[in-house]
Structures are given as C-alpha cells and as structure tokens.
Amino acid sequence: MTKRFVLVAGNIGAGKSSLTERLGERLGWLTEYESVSDNPYLADFYQDMAAWAFHLQIFFLGHRAEQHLELARAPQSAIIDRSIYEDAEIFARAALHLGTVTERDYRTYRQVFDLVVGNLPSPDLLLFLKAPVEVLLERIRARGREIESGITADYLQLLDQYYDEWLANFDLCPVLTIPSDDLDFVHKPGHLEIVIQRMQDKLAGKEQIEFPED
Asked: Which domains does the chain have, with CATH numbers?
C-alpha cells in the first residue's frame, strides 16, 4: 500500500481535530494534533495578543516543523491536524494586520519560516475544511475553551479571507475542499466514507464530484 502524508487545514472550529482523529482510526494512519492544552503560550496570547503573538508564532513554527518531519519520514501513512503553512500564511499575516506583531518581527519570522519550510518534504494532499463564520463561532462557543472566549466573528472572517488567498496560490500538492458544515463525519459514518472516497479520487487524479448536501 502506498504511504500517504496528508495535512488538514481550516479555520478555528472547522472540525480539523475531529476529522484527523476519525481518519486516523478508520484508515489506521498515524496522527498528530495541534498543540493546545500543552502549549506554553496560547493562554497568554489570547489574554494579550500584542505581547505574546511573536512568541506563539515561533513556538508553532518549531512544533509543526517537528511534527511535519516526523510524520513525513514515518514508514506508514500519516495525517496532521493543521499545517505548518497556515502559521505564516494565515495567523502571522493576521497578527501583522491587527498590529499584534510589528513589521520588523513579521519579517524576521518570515525569514526563518521560509528557511524551515524550504527543506520540508511536500505533503501528498491537503484537506481544507470550510464552514461559514457563524458556524465556526457557534462551535467555538459550544466547546467552551476559556482560552478561545475572546475569538470574534471579525477575527474569524479575517482568517477566512486569508485562507481563500493562500489556497488560490497553493501548489505544493492537490487540495480537497470539504464543506464541514454540511458533512457530519463525527456522527454519520457514511459521511466519513464520502470524505475517504473523495480523498482517494483526489490522490489518484480523478475528476472530482461535488460533495452531496444532506
């Protein structure tokens, strides 16, 4: 069986961790997740973004590069919750736009980022989970993480804009966009099978069929 290395991308609350977990269980793949509970900067960042944004970006850069290399080199197929590329193309850009990192710090971060990712193996597939901002906000509130209590619709909309701009020029591997507001791959096994079939088709270079609405 061909080894596959897949990344899961998407806005906050899009369902990345849930999909990563279920694909890993269903396919027997290695999984890695975004560092949340053991992240030494995340809580401070949400309390004072200007003071901790640069620190958080550097932490994520090292953490995700380590994950990326480990799973890309693993002998079996693997999937990661959130890609290293989003750090720069989405969250660092948002920090610069919001003024929580300075232009000087942003340039320094991008220089290091470009050096790091320039030496990383390319993934075989990027799964992009897409959902309306109002759905994302509802999910964030429902899971009730204190560190996410300050996330606003405006912030999610900004991230959404950056995702669209990033993916318009992303060419490291094929991209499969998954409407995570329509597909309930957590509670409906049939929806998970649809995602797996679309993944297989995309990896095989077959013409894509629209996801069914339910």
From this structure: 5-203 (3.40.50.300)
